[in-house]
Design brief:
heterodimer; A: mainly beta; five-stranded mixed beta sheet; two-stranded antiparallel ribbon; 1 helix; 7 strands; 11% helix; B: alpha/beta; two-stranded antiparallel sheet; 12 helices; 10 strands
């Protein structure tokens, strides 16, 4: 699967849950949302090879 | 986690509410909760005209969208501050706001260009005030003045901003850290109009987590500017947000309880307004209410610039 977060990207060929993926990337689920193939998915959903994943940061302001 | 309303896979899980919803039922819930907050704090009625301060970001565009869907008379106000720093931030933000308005036939967008109106954008003003790296306080001063001016001149009953619970909790956290009692007195989802030119200000999203407003825009397909203001890097409020998010991760609901229990405490009299509140005068130049004896801070800023 292809994962994009800000200007970074990763290619991972392993099935896992959204939660596991975020843990690998050291991201708190409270600070991001995950879009899988164009649709928002909760942390218990699976991501797998072939998926297009976009991780969206939810923090704004200053 | 299945959607509580239909058993389909959840699109978002909100641990603080022990609630999971799919992408069909989440917008429905989001509208209901917004309406509930509007009613709870008596923010405005359907007969009133609302001016929504729109930045092109997720919160303000989501707010405008929800208010229109709930049948409110809501116009948008975009203030072009002239922020670039190699990112064309203001230009791109305005494009998002304009694109949203173009897709919504009942949406009217008012654009105020600070440079066109006053001869300089906020970055040029900050440079002349020797604050080129941190124009935030000047930006805030100019935005507040312009929002109030447009609301007053346009005959709007209320000015709505997209502040969410994370914004409010971070502000509260900062104010408590420094025990800024005056700020704590004024922090509330509704600030009443003063009857002399200051518009009523409301924050209908004050009980939503930032993550929830972002989820709403993603599900609704609202195109917003994801980048931060280039001058927000290193802002204290972002550090406070990060601290609160870590606390939320360790203890779901921590942010919500921190903020909503503060509101409850205020309703029982904590940080009540002083009996002898500072007297307001009309600024001798722009006419907006101010505690200063002659010019308001906004007019004083431009006067200083003209004599520099």
């Amino acid at each position: 699967m292809h994962i994009v977060y800000h200007d970074k990207e990763w290619f991972v060929e392993q099935e896992m849950t959204v939660n596991q993926m975020l843990k690998h990337l050291k991201l708190l689920p409270e600070s991001v949302l995950v879009v899988r193939n164009g649709r928002l998915v909760a942390e218990d959903q699976k991501v797998q090879p072939g998926d297009e994943i976009k991780i969206v940061s939810v923090v704004s302001g200053g | 986690m299945r959607c509580r309303r239909c058993e389909n896979p959840g699109a978002i899980n909100m641990r603080q509410h022990k609630l999971s919803l799919c992408d069909v039922h989440y917008p429905e819930w989001f509208h209901e909760q917004t309406q509930r907050t509007i009613k709870k704090y008596a923010m405005f009625a359907h007969a009133e005209r609302i001016l929504v301060a729109v930045s092109g970001g997720k919160d303000s565009l989501a707010l405008w969208d929800v208010l229109l869907k709930l049948g409110y008379q809501a116009d948008g106000l975009y203030i072009d501050l002239g922020i670039d720093r190699g990112t064309a931030y203001s230009t791109r933000s305005q494009e998002k706001a304009a694109a949203f308005a173009a897709q919504h036939p009942t949406a009217r967008l008012i654009v105020v260009d600070i440079r066109q109106l006053y001869g300089e954008n906020i970055i040029q003003v900050a440079q002349r005030r020797h604050r080129p790296q941190r124009p935030c306080s000047i930006c805030g001063l100019i935005k507040r003045h312009e929002m109030n001016r447009v609301a007053f001149e346009g005959g709007y009953d209320v000015l709505a901003t997209g502040h969410n619970l994370d914004d409010e909790a971070a502000t509260l956290f900062g104010n408590v850290l420094h025990w800024q009692v005056d700020y704590l007195r004024h922090q509330f989802p509704v600030l009443p109009a003063d009857g002399q030119g200051l518009a009523r200000k409301v924050k209908p999203f004050c009980r939503f987590y930032e993550r929830e407003t972002a989820a709403y825009t993603l599900i609704q397909g609202i195109d917003y500017i994801e980048d931060e203001c280039p001058y927000a890097v290193g802002a204290t409020s972002l550090a406070h947000k990060a601290t609160l998010t870590q606390m939320e991760h360790d203890s779901p609901g921590a942010k919500m309880h921190f903020y909503t229990n503060f509101l409850k405490a205020k309703e029982t009299g904590l940080f009540a307004a002083e009996e002898t509140a500072p007297e307001l005068h009309s600024c001798s130049q722009c006419g907006q209410p101010t505690t200063a004896p002659d010019l308001c801070n906004f007019c004083r800023l431009w006067e200083k610039l003209s004599t520099d």
